[in-house]
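As a representative case, we now present a protein record of this kind.
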Amino acid sequence: MSNRDNLPPLTLAQTVEASVAVIRAGRVPMVLGAPGIGKTSIASIIADAVDLPHAIMIASNYESVDIGGLPVPDARTGE
């Protein structure tokens, strides 16, 4: 995996190790990369490593209402 600062890419083991440390610190890791490099697989490996339940959701397979629900008007403003 690489980052936006043009540092050397991390190996899979380094990516998982760093991401697990981030999760244990109470933060959320973000894995960036081109399509097809295995980001979804890495996310599953990381979740398994820290015993977190996870589900794979490919956003392009869903409509926005499937993920966020239908908009609900604000009771005060009606918007």
Remarks:
- DSSP finds three helices and no strands in the chain.
